[in-house]
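Issue: ligand-bound run for protoporphyrin IX containing FE - logging full I/O for the record.

Environment: standard queue, default settings, no custom constraints.

Inputs:
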Amino acid sequence: MNNSILWYATRGAGAVSLVLLSGVVVLGILGATRFEAPGWPRFLTTHLHRNLSLVAVLFLLLHIVTAVVDPFTNLGWGAAVVPFSSYYRTFWLGLGAVAAELMAAIVVTSLLRGWLGHRTWRLVHWLAYASWPIAVAHGWGTGTDSGAGWMLALDVVCIGSVGIVLAARLLGPAGDPLAGERVRFRSGVQRGPRQ
Ligand code: HEM
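Outputs:
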């Protein structure tokens, strides 16, 4: 395959992955706060969160595979699997590998959620709060297009949207008044007799 096609594919798929993953994080936070609005039922957030994350994983795989097989950089699979082992842009590519591995853990535990139990799944899912900013730093640090207007605009939109919903979650009223009850129900603890 033509080397420059691979190079453009890596950059394009990297940018698309970042946008999709930011959307997934936004929807995840909205889901956790039980957000709904006229014309936007709660189940839409949950379904979009799940389906968008699977599409994001496909683009992320494309990004990683095209980066690794590109003969110009000659990264090798080790660079994608073992963080900070790449001879090329060691630190920034290492961040990409860490972000991708954290995301893999989140996706795999979500697919196995029925077996793992809610508490374990939730603990792993919190890794999204580490993985997303690490991915942003990776893209910014190593991207050829980091200084381009369109990429800067994408970064601002991604960081801005996650920042806004996160701030709304942290500063807003407690999202789920039944959260305690839900956790007790999932862990099989029975409610005491009504007084
Ligand atoms: C969650 C994980 C990741 C995300 C969201 C992500 C996203 C991005 C973004 C947004 C860029 C900048 C693209 C541009 O400037 O147009 C980029 C660049 C790059 N990424 Fe990733 N990446 C991830 C993981 C990885 C991994 C695991 C590798 C493995 C080797 C990798 C290899 C590269 C390379 C080589 C570039 C530089 C491309 C260039 O020359 O501009 N990325 N990535």
